[in-house]
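Researcher: Quick test of sequence recovery. Tokens follow.
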């Protein structure tokens, strides 16, 4: 593709778009959506129990000084 002309005048661009049957106005900006509704009426059966204790400590302490 080779660019043979560059039109930067708004009135000329609008006339060309009208002539070829295209919209000459920019699209309307849609309003922002609200936040998602995270509160559910009842929790799902597969939801994890977040109040569970952290993972237990390993029985042996890992020492990084030794490389196998």
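Model:
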């Amino acid at each position: 593709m080779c660019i043979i002309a560059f039109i930067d005048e708004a009135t000329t661009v609008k006339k060309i778009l009208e002539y070829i049957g295209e919209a000459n106005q920019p699209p309307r900006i849609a309003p922002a959506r609200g936040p998602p509704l995270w509160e559910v009426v009842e929790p799902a059966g597969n939801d994890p129990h977040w109040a569970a204790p952290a993972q237990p400590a390993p029985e042996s302490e890992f020492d990084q000084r030794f490389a196998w």
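The mean pLDDT is 78.
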